[in-house]
Design goal:
- The chain is α/β, with parallel strands linked by helices.
- The chain contains 7 helices and 10 strands.
- The strands form 4 sheets. A 4-stranded mixed β-sheet has the order 6-5-4-7. Strands 1-2 form a two-stranded antiparallel ribbon. Strands 3-8 form a two-stranded parallel sheet.
- Helix 4 packs across helix 6.
- The protein starts with a helix and ends with a helix.
Length: 218
């Protein structure tokens, strides 16, 4: 499916509905249950980089290219897509978390990534999110966007608790550290354009098309 056809399909069939749930805005459940269950814990940014923190990390292939996942004792705090050599990416990661004890476990990373994209509803994963209070609210809102559906940045701001903070919501979407599980790829522009994506517009289009097919039972 080319980008224009994908865009028409999304705009015509895949917009999530924002509803009021007991006085708070949220996204209507579409009934699709074949996804991992998520628990979210919040930590301070400095807590991820303390000298006494042990981090495990590794690489694996995914339906959308090479993936990198990192976790600590509290949960997964990074899932990204890699377009450079593993060694180069890992070196950058080590430099960013230079105070921590880091161990590379590609076998465990492979299991995690496989479970993420197997869409196993019996798999329960814990995410450790670290950011400003509003960033965290935006990421929590993103985590509730139904599989195979899309929303606008305005929708995200509304569900995150401040419908007037669309620009701030867009910034938080763009700084999402946990790709796919916190599905920032499901946010598009209000005019229906797919918009940009930190890991590439083509990858975003591929994710949306894949989800639409999975949801349709292909």
């Amino acid at each position: 499916m080319d980008d224009n056809a994908l865009q028409r399909s999304i705009v015509g069939n895949s917009r999530a509905v924002v509803v009021n749930k007991n006085g708070k805005w949220g996204f209507a459940d579409n009934g699709y249950s074949k996804v991992c269950q998520l628990d979210i814990v919040v930590c301070k940014p400095a807590d991820l980089r303390r000298r006494d923190v042990s981090i495990s990390a590794g690489f694996s292939d995914s339906p959308f290219g090479r993936s990198f996942v990192a976790w600590n004792e509290r949960g997964i705090f990074m899932l990204s897509f890699v377009d450079m050599a593993d060694a180069d990416y890992f070196g950058k990661f080590q430099a960013d978390y230079d105070k921590c004890r880091i161990a590379r476990y590609d076998d465990r990373a492979r299991v995690l990534i496989d479970n993420v994209f197997a869409l196993n509803p019996e798999e329960r994963l814990t995410l450790c999110l670290s950011g400003t209070p509003f960033q965290v609210e935006v990421w929590k809102a993103l985590s509730t966007i139904p599989f195979g559906e899309v929303v606008s940045y305005g929708d995200v701001a509304k569900v995150a608790g401040n419908e007037n903070a669309v620009r701030a919501a867009a910034s938080a979407v763009g700084s999402n550290p946990v790709g796919f599980l916190i599905p920032c790829h499901r946010v598009i522009r209000s005019n229906g354009e797919l918009g940009q994506f930190g890991w590439g517009a083509a990858r975003k289009a591929g994710m949306l098309e894949w989800e639409m097919k999975m949801k349709a039972g292909f």
